[in-house]
């Protein structure tokens, strides 16, 4: 090819720059799973749904709860294990996962998502916080 | 592949639109997943356990003969502000108010009467959202963030509101407020049982729909020591509101507009 | 054809650079607005729509006005407009984009704007306004692309473009009608609750839009070798004259119904605008300026010698544009809220961030027009490529 020297050198530089985030974080904690603080063993009954379901769909579940509660005035949810729960983030979910910065935020910060729940909803153990 | 620049951009544009359309349809279907699980897990009767099935029509009767707001009483206003985390910005421009008091001649601005009885010279009237039977705000909301519930209460969904303020323009009574900035720092004592709102959404009195759903009466009604405010179901002919309206003369704000407001003032 | 926008002389680039500066200032203040909230504007609980929606209302009119050159050319074979229909259509595209931007910056939760499409609400006029505006944008983008491309290739445009162009004519009427319906169906705002609001909107649109088009054509004539044609400018001038006559007539009709019936609810708005109410007179000098400008421009338009003199015409068209901008872009929306539903007079004035954001959206529109016209004129070889 023409100008092969320039092109190959340019390609190497480009690949280097493009993969630089991986090199930068090679020794950092970015590769580790986020450290979730789960509810203490004594309190732990069971979550509303299985951990696998929650991992993939808790956002959809919360959205659906929100619509059902606010718009349809339905207050209880029957989960796939047959039990009924109140459809409430602050009263049901936060009842067990009581500290959002040790549970919710761990994954959210890792994934760089910022759901704005606490802009309006009041954290049960931290009413003065605004996020 | 022989492709010119214009064709490349066309393909790029159309595939972006196609991907976006695909993602949108994804959103439509995802919401159904959870519904399917929860519906099949328990019978539909359990699922809809607390649904309001009876057809009610809630209304408020405010007895201006008993109300002492012109003497400085603000018990109903304070109760509402406390219960619902209403911020206090300290000035008019950004103010948020769900219930407040206005002079009589401003409340009933379409009933000019220069020879009004003297005892109404300084009369103040508690005003709040009329939760109209034919609400113009519901008519104009482009996302159904405000809608009318089966029992007549005009609801607000702060998750869906895009803050276009069309409802504020449509309301003939000035009942609605907008969060012009973040309200949290301006709330004196946060009530943990009710959410605050964020900047950029419209809010208003909803006849304490969260309390009414649990069988309680609105906070303002409970707080009034003069028993000047009565809340009830107009469809129940035995209710107190029906008795009051049967026995006393009542007026409403701007009835000629066809909104059918459901606050009846006894004068 | 896009590469024509990237080649230009010093004047072209310095003009674009100046506009880019204005745009960047506006973007900075928009981020301030996003973090502080809409309280950074002059809007309040009583005046909940302000400069943004007022500008939106005005510019929708300009967007609709392309129909004034498209209709004679395509429906009545009026050949004289042949060279300027595409200029009108490009003006429509830039205007619709400005409208969408003005509504967007006015939203309290702009990231939720897709809710309008996810939860369509057929009884809401705002939903239909969004549909109408988006549709009009798509139609005009297709039309301009196909017709300009055909000119570029020196071939006749394909036959299927004709029905789309014909469709743009009633669609243009509908975008401004639906914007008027947004306002004229509200029982709680007597200032807007008038059947003549939609016709007024159309009449003022068909005056202000072609006036702007004439100004653009005469500027281009000076800067390039492009000649829109004396006949086209003459006919446009005539269209503006008739439309302005109808516009002023409609305003006088409003005066009559309001003042003769003397219903306080209706009179109070006009009193606020032209005399002041409760001692509050912020908009009074503006409205009288608009009135004087409109009468003066009518005089200059009705006299053929003055109308056909291009140097006077550009001045007259500016008067028409300014007068209607004050009336629609300042007086109409804000006055709908004054007096409030409680009969009180609260005033509104835009703040500096609000004004700068609005200015930057205008700059975006003019930026787009500059690029569109540069491409068009380069394609026509009347501009150095």
CATH architecture of the largest domain in chain B: 2-Layer Sandwich
Largest sheet of chain B: 4 strands, mixed
Overall body shape of chain B = elongated
Tell me the radius of gyration of chain B.
23 Å
Provide the spatial order of strands within the biggest beta sheet of chain A.
Answer: 1-2
Main beta sheet of chain A, described?
2 strands, antiparallel
Shape of chain A: elongated
The fold-level CATH name of the largest domain in chain B is: Alpha-Beta Plaits
- In the CATH scheme, the class of the largest domain in chain B would be Alpha Beta
Strand order of the largest sheet of chain B: 8-1-10-9
Return the string of H and E elements of chain A: HHHEEHHH
Low-confidence segments of chain B, given as residue ranges, are: 36-53
Task: Give the helix tally of chain B.
Answer: 9
N-to-C span of chain A: 57 Å
Overall mean confidence score, pLDDT of chain A: 84
Helix content of chain A: 40-55%
Helix content of chain B: 25-40%
β-strand amount of chain A: under 5%
Count, helices of chain A = 6
Task: Report what the structure shows.
The complex is a heterotrimer of chains A (131), B (267) and C (385). Chain A is mainly alpha-helical. Chain A has six helices and two strands, in the order H-H-H-E-E-H-H-H. Chain A has a two-stranded antiparallel sheet. In chain A, strand 1 and strand 2 (84-86) form a beta hairpin. With 267 residues, chain B is an alpha+beta fold. Helix content of chain B is 30%, strand content 14%. In chain B, the strands form four sheets. A four-stranded mixed sheet of chain B has the order 8-1-10-9. Chain C has helices at 10-36, 51-64, 67-76, 85-106, 115-118, 125-152, 161-184, 197-223, 230-261, 264-274, 284-302, 304-307, 310-336, 352-379. Chain C is mostly helical and 385 residues long. Chain C is built from 14 helices and no strands. The interface between B and C is large, with 52 and 45 residues.
């Amino acid at each position: 090819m023409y100008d092969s020297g320039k092109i190959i050198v340019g390609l190497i530089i480009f690949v280097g720059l493009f993969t630089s985030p991986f090199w930068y974080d090679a020794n950092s904690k970015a590769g580790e799973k986020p450290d979730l603080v789960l509810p203490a063993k004594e309190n732990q009954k069971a979550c509303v749904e299985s951990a696998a379901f929650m991992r993939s769909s808790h956002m959809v579940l919360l959205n659906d709860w929100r619509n059902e509660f606010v718009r349809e005035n339905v207050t209880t949810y029957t989960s796939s294990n047959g039990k009924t729960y109140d459809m409430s983030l602050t009263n049901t979910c936060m009842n067990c996962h009581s500290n959002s910065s040790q549970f919710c935020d761990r994954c959210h910060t890792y994934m760089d998502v910022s759901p704005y729940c606490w802009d309006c909803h009041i954290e049960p153990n931290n009413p003065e916080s605004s996020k | 592949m022989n492709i010119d620049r214009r064709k490349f951009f066309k393909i790029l544009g159309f595939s972006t639109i196609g991907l976006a359309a695909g993602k949108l349809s994804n959103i439509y279907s995802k919401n159904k997943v959870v519904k399917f699980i929860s519906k099949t897990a328990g019978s539909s009767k359990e699922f809809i356990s607390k649904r309001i099935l009876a057809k009610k029509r809630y209304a408020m009767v405010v007895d201006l003969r008993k109300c002492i707001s012109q003497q400085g009483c603000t018990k109903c206003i304070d109760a509402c502000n406390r219960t619902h985390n209403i911020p206090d910005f300290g000035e008019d421009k950004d103010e948020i108010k769900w219930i407040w008091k206005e002079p009589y001649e401003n409340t009933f601005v379409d009933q000019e009467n220069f020879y009004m009885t003297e005892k109404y010279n300084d009369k103040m009237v508690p005003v709040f959202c009329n939760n109209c039977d034919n609400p113009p705000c519901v008519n104009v909301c482009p996302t159904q963030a405000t809608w009318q519930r089966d029992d007549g209460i005009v609801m607000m969904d702060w998750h869906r509101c895009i803050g276009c303020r069309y409802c504020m323009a449509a309301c003939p009574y000035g009942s609605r407020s907008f969060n012009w900035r973040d309200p949290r720092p301006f709330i004196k004592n946060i009530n943990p049982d009710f959410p605050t709102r964020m900047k950029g959404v419209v809010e208003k009195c909803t006849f304490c729909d969260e309390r009414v759903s649990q069988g309680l009466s609105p906070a303002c009604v409970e707080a009034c020591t003069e028993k000047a405010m009565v809340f009830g179901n107009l469809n129940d002919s035995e209710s107190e509101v029906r008795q009051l309206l049967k026995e006393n003369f009542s007026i409403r704000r701007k009835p000629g507009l066809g909104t059918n407001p459901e606050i009846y003032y006894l004068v | 054809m896009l590469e024509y926008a990237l080649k230009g002389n010093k004047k072209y680039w310095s003009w674009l650079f100046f506009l880019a500066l204005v745009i960047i200032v506006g973007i900075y203040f928009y981020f301030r607005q996003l973090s502080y909230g809409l309280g950074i504007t002059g809007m309040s609980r009583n005046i909940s729509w302000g400069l943004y929606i007022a500008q939106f209302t005005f510019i929708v009119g300009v967007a609709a006005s392309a129909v004034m050159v498209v209709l004679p050319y395509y429906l009545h074979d009026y050949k004289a407009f042949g060279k300027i229909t595409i200029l009108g259509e490009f003006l429509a595209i830039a205007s619709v984009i400005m409208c969408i931007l003005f509504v967007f910056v006015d939203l309290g939760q702009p990231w939720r704007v897709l809710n309008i499409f996810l939860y369509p609400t057929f009884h809401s006029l705002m939903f239909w306004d969004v549909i109408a505006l988006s549709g009009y944008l798509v139609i005009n983008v297709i039309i301009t692309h196909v017709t300009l491309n055909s000119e570029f290739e020196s071939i006749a445009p394909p036959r299927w473009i004709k029905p789309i162009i014909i469709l743009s004519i009633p669609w243009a009427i509908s975008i401004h009608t639906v914007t008027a319906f947004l306002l004229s169906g509200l029982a709680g705002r007597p200032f807007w609750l008038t059947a003549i609001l939609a016709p007024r909107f159309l009449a003022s649109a068909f005056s202000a839009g072609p006036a702007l088009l004439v100004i653009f054509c005469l500027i281009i004539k000076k800067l390039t070798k492009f000649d829109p044609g004396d006949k086209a400018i003459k006919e446009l001038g005539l269209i503006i004259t008739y439309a302005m006559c109808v516009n002023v007539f409609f305003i006088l009709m409003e005066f009559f119904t309001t003042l003769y019936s003397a219903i306080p609810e209706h009179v109070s708005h006009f009193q606020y605008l032209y005399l002041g109410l409760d001692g509050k007179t912020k908009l009074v000098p503006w409205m009288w300026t608009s009135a004087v400008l409109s009468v003066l421009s009518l005089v200059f338009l009705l006299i053929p010698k003055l109308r056909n003199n291009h140097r006077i015409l550009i001045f007259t068209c500016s008067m028409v544009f300014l007068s209607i901008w004050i009336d629609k872009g300042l007086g109409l929306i804000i006055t709908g809220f004054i007096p409030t539903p409680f009969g009180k007079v609260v005033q509104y004035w835009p703040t500096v961030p609000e004004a700068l954001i609005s200015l930057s959206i205008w700059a975006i529109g003019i930026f787009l027009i500059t690029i569109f016209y540069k491409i068009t004129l380069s394609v026509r070889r009347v501009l150095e490529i």
